[in-house]
Amino acid sequence: MADEVPVRLSRDPRGVATVTIDRPARHNALSSAVVAELTAIMAGLHEDASVRAVVLAASGPTFCAGADIGEMRRAADAAPADNEREARCLASLLLQLDGLAHPTVAGVQGDAFGGALGLIAACDVAVAAEGARFALTEVRLGIVPAMISPFVVRAIGARQARRYFLTGERFGAAEAGRLGLVHVVAPAETLDEAVAGVVGELLRGAPAAQAEAKRLVRRVTGRSDDEDRALGAETAAWIARLRALEEGREGLGAFLERRPPAWSRE
Predict the structure, then answer these.
(1) Residue 97 within any structural domain of the chain
(2) Which of 28, 168, 190, 198 is deepest in the core (most CB within 10 A)?
(3) Would you name the residues annotated as active-site residues?
(4) Beta-bridge partner residues of 133
C-alpha cells in the first residue's frame, strides 16, 4: 500500500533526483511519516555530490492537501512539549529543503493547500499546472500558517500574505504566478515537460556555483542559519500553542467531523 512507503526517490543518469510524495489516497497529506521520510531523503541528497538537481513531485491528482488534520488534532491533546516537538518536525523539513545544496524544482498539480505552500515556497523554482489550486486555509481551522510563513512571505511578500493568511480563500495557478509563488504555469498535460525544461536549464549551470548562488541570495536578503533555525523553533511553538487553544481544537475537530466550526457565518 502507498502509505507503507509514503515517499519515493528515483534518480536518472544525469544526477536528477525526483522525490515523490506517494500518499494519493490521503491526498498526499503531510503525515509525520511523510515529513520524516522527506527530511531524511533531503538530508541524504544534500550530502550527495553526484546530485545535480532535485524535483519535488506528488502522485495522483492532488499535489498535497497540507497537514494531516487527524494527527494535528491528536497533537493538540498531547503534552505541550510533545505538541511542540511534533510541530518542529515540519519546521526542520522546510529548513532542510530550503537549504539544500542543489537546485530544487516543485512540480504542482491539483490542489496545494496549507503546508503544501511551504514546500513549494522552499523550492528554488515552482512549476504549476494551469488547473492547480492554492490556499492558506489555516485560519478556517482556528490556527495560523506558522512554520510555512517565513517561506511563503518571502515568496509572495507581506502585503499579499496578509490577504491570503486572513481569508483562507482559494486562488488559481495564474494568480500564484502573479504573486510569485510559482514561476511557470503550464497546461496540465505538459506539466512534466515544463518541469523537465526547467531542469534542463539548471543542468547547464556549474554545480558549485549554483550552491554558492543559493547562499548568496540568503546572505543578501539578511538571512543566516542561526536566525532561520531560531525562527523555525519560534513558529513551531506558535502553532503548537494555537492548536491547543479553544479555537484550534474547535476548528480541527469541525474539519474531522465535517461540520462548520462554531465561528462560521456562512
Answers:
(1) yes
(2) 28
(3) 138
(4) 111, 172
